[in-house]
Design goal:
Layout (H helix, E strand, L loop, with lengths): L5 H22 L3 H23 L15 H7 L3 H32 L13
Helix pairs in contact: 1-2, 2-4
């Protein structure tokens, strides 16, 4: 196979998504757009985490006849980033759900989703 390795493509795509999401969170004034940009940022970070644990032509970290102890350090894929990504997915969904709940409550109070209308909590 020729071309860029999958880990490089994942890493670049993850960084781009994280930057787009961060830019969106800092520039938009609508709460729903901020929540969507947070989700894009979160997805980008997850892709970066997966890319850090990926090894081209690697295999599962199971030492048996197919993978000896000598080869394990060189060919076995690190399972910790994958486990962290699964945890990050669950935490990301929970944070998004809480943000959407706050958005619903704020809309019910002010009938708008613009953060400019919420001046009471500014110092």
């Amino acid at each position: 196979m020729t071309g860029l390795p999958v880990s490089t493509i994942l890493l670049v795509t993850g960084f781009l998504l994280a930057l787009i999401g961060l830019w969106g969170m800092l520039t938009h004034r609508n709460i729903m757009r901020i929540i969507i940009c947070f989700t894009v940022f979160d997805t980008g970070l997850r892709l970066v985490m997966v890319a850090t644990g990926y090894i081209t032509a690697g295999t599962a970290p199971i030492i048996d006849a197919a993978l000896s102890k000598a080869e394990a350090a060189r060919r076995a894929i690190d399972p910790i980033p994958s486990a962290l990504v699964v945890t990050a997915i669950v935490i990301g969904f929970a944070v998004t759900a809480v943000m959407l709940g706050f958005a619903i409550r704020l809309y019910a109070a002010k009938k708008t989703l613009s953060i400019d209308a919420f001046t009471e909590s500014k110092w």
